[in-house]
């Protein structure tokens, strides 16, 4: 199992890049999707969240009000740390399961908190999707119902850009046109196929 950890700050375009790899036949699992799974109705984590924050954190149908929860935890670091301690072990176990079940030559683990959590231990290589902070803010405001101040708090809670780039094995510049980003993905895909073959011992002598 050769896993590439794909990460980047909020609004950097991780999902777009992951989709380009998927078009090439690469299995990609998004930690955000798994994070939604572990708080579905009936999951123990959702019961713990409702007990901790109160029933007001739930929608009328019993699902988690993710926007309300996001607002609460990014206004209070203590609450954010409590939530992360609750969710991350369950998320990591499910990520490991999905990656082990995949059958592509290598796999992508897509996560905004790859380097801030134990998720990086599931990976053999790190790919960072990078954009300027102004791009992060503009894209996130256009996508989500969040104001600039809240987005800036989220950015501040994530690893600083310079440290993220320092930890990268490869970087995709996503401030460029889609055609150029696709070209970067194609080049990296060929490289990762070679790395995966060497990792598994299948490389040509």
Task: Tell me what you see in this structure.
By secondary structure, this protein is α/β, with parallel strands linked by helices. The chain has one domain (3-200): Rossmann fold. Helices cover 54% and strands 11% of the residues. It has nine helices and five strands. A five-stranded parallel β-sheet has the order 2-3-1-4-5, with helices on both faces. Helix 6 (133-143) crosses helix 7 (148-157). The protein is globular. It starts with a strand and ends in a 5-residue tail after the last helix. 27% of the residues are buried.
Structural class: alpha/beta
What is the spatial order of strands in the main beta sheet?
Answer: 2-3-1-4-5
Shape: globular
Determine and state the CATH class. Answer: Alpha Beta
Unreliable sequence segments = none
The CATH fourth-level homologous superfamily: P-loop containing nucleotide triphosphate hydrolases
Q: Please tally the helical runs, counting DSSP H or I stretches of 4 or more residues.
A: 9
CATH architecture group name? 3-Layer(aba) Sandwich
Pfam families: CoaE
InterPro entries: Depp_CoAkinase, P-loop_NTPase
Binding site for ATP: 11-16
Main location: cytoplasm
